[in-house]
Design a protein that fits this description.
CATH class: Alpha Beta
Strand content: 15-25%
Radius of gyration: 17 Å
CATH superfamily: Metallo-dependent phosphatases
């Protein structure tokens, strides 16, 4: 996709009020592809409303929805009827948000479709967008060859342990909360721990305009 412009948005984790403020702030940018890096749900107070806001935003913007490890855990829980791993990782907050709206835990069909339609990566000529990351010692092309490698896109943090990589282009990712956005060789990390708050030196939702590499941040108001 030559000459395309993007906005990537980091991990939201159920922080619906903060997301709403961010969407209002980035609404002005036209002719952009909005790439959401996953982890829309869990831990924060209103995951259900987050999905409603995103679905509404999609009506007037070109959006790419990446899958985070938290959406993956939700889908696996629904498929297997084993909710233990998901609950251990913050799924209870998501369940409560649906109960608050519907009186019992039920996921509307449109939300379930949203979760299932999320993708593991978004590949462009300049950038490779992914939720977590990928092996820094393997090219992006090689990582895409096998399913066992693409599953790493949901969880991998090995790239954060080195200052070097063999990637062909810049990888834009979330997943690992940091006090400030990470900008280094072939890496842009934008999970600034929105759901964790100022007490841990985080508490911001971050977006990045590309190719300008201009960061937009909103303090968590949830």
């Amino acid at each position: 996709m030559p000459d395309k412009k993007f906005i990537a948005i980091g991990d939201i984790h159920g922080c619906a009020d903060t997301l709403e403020t961010m969407l209002e702030s980035i609404d002005e940018y036209t002719n952009r592809i909005y790439v959401f890096l996953g982890d829309y749900i869990d831990r924060g107070p209103d995951s259900r409303r987050v999905i409603d806001l995103l679905l509404d935003f999609e009506q007037s913007h070109q959006c790419v929805w990446l899958r985070g490890n938290h959406e993956q855990m939700l889908l696996e829980a629904m498929e297997s009827d084993d909710y233990s791993l998901w609950l251990y990782n913050g799924g209870e907050a998501t369940i409560r948000s649906y109960i608050k709206e519907f009186g019992s835990f039920q996921i509307p069909d449109i939300h379930e479709t949203f979760y299932k339609d999320t993708t593991l990566y978004f590949d462009t000529s300049q950038y490779f967008f992914v939720h977590a990351g990928l092996n820094p010692n393997r090219t992006i092309k090689d990582s895409l060859k096998h399913d066992r490698y693409t599953k790493e896109f949901l969880w991998d943090r090995s790239h954060l342990q080195t200052n070097d990589n063999v990637w062909e282009k810049t990888v834009v990712f979330g997943h690992t909360p940091m006090m400030e956005p990470l900008l280094t060789k072939n890496m842009i990390g934008i999970d600034t721990g929105c759901v964790y708050g100022e007490s841990r030196g985080m508490g911001k939702l971050t977006a990045v305009l590309l190719p300008e590499i201009k960061f937009i941040q909103k303090n968590c108001t949830d």
